[in-house]
Amino acid sequence: MEKDAIRSNERYERLLRTAQSLPPVTTAVAHPCDEVSLKGAVEAARLGLITPILVGPPDRIRDIAERAGLDISGFPLKESAHSHDSAAKAVELVREGKAEALMKGSLHTDELMGAVVARDTGIRTARRISHCFVMDVPGHKDPLIITDAAVNIAPDLADKVDIVQNAIDLGHALQFAEVRVAILSAMETVNPKVPSTVEAAALCKMADRGQITGGILDGPLALDNAISEEAAAIKSIVSPVAGRANVLVVPDLEAGNMLAKSLSFLAGADAAGIVLGARVPIILTSRADSVVSRLASCAVASLVAEARRQSAAAAIR
After folding, report:
1. Per residue in 36-45, pLDDT tens?
2. Which pLDDT tens digit goes with each residue over 22-76?
3. Of 5, 87, 92, 157, which is the most exposed, with the fewest CB atoms less than 10 Å away?
4. What are the C-alpha distances in Å from 282 to residues 107, 116, 146, 291?
5. Which residue segments constitute the domains of the chain, with CATH numbers given?
6. Are residues 242 and 102 in contact, defined by beta-carbon separation less than 8 angstroms?
7. Which residue, among 46, 39, 37, has the nearest Cα to 16 in the 3D structure?
8. pTM score, two decimals?
């Protein structure tokens, strides 16, 4: 596949170019035991986004590569017995400092995340783990980060502090000039009968007091008031976020999942998926993802890994 065939638009082309200017990220690919997941890893390596370590049953991976016409001869292969073992051994590579990122293969998300959060052998940090979609929506001028639509089912206020901070950090890694965070609800006024509005107000005050840093927060905001300047003006909402948000924080997983999939399947948006809050970025893909989405997810992980390298270097100085 030629590069031009996998780039859907100028924005994703820019993202890929930026990631390609960085060193490829050594990535443990957990159980790439179908053509889709193995091809995604091989293509990302060909573009210089990642250096994959394939973790899975070697004979099975080689058989898939041969049938799909994929050359994996240059990639190290770490043997595992089955999908759960693949997840554990991929995480072990991170713990040993041999991988800077994880990538989901053909195993279930729960299997991979179970290994990530395991108490004694996982790679959790003090930060709550959360998922972000980075979405490129046709007709919308800015990329949108949507969180959390895949990991935290019904996050409480403490969880949302980390969910918001993870998204802000991602915005900086993606080189957003300004990270503008809308805390979404069904309305833009605080109503004690709607808990998400109260939590939105609390999150904004926590940002004012320095408990959340690096972004500009506003909420509660309904979706239209968050992304449409015209809608915000009609409601007389004046803030640096209303109508201009580039991070959308949803009340719960159901709302986030429906929002992200609506944008993908009704508006034709491309979505890169990344899990943050662990020791390394985790690339989550699904079988329904397009090639450009898979590569964009690798590019996002590359930028996150680079931001972490710079942060670690700054801490040493």
Report:
1. 999 999 999 9
2. 999 999 999 999 999 999 999 999 999 999 999 999 999 999 999 999 999 999 9
3. 5
4. 14, 9, 16, 17
5. 1-124+278-317 (3.40.50.10950), 130-276 (3.40.718.10)
6. no
7. 46
8. 0.92
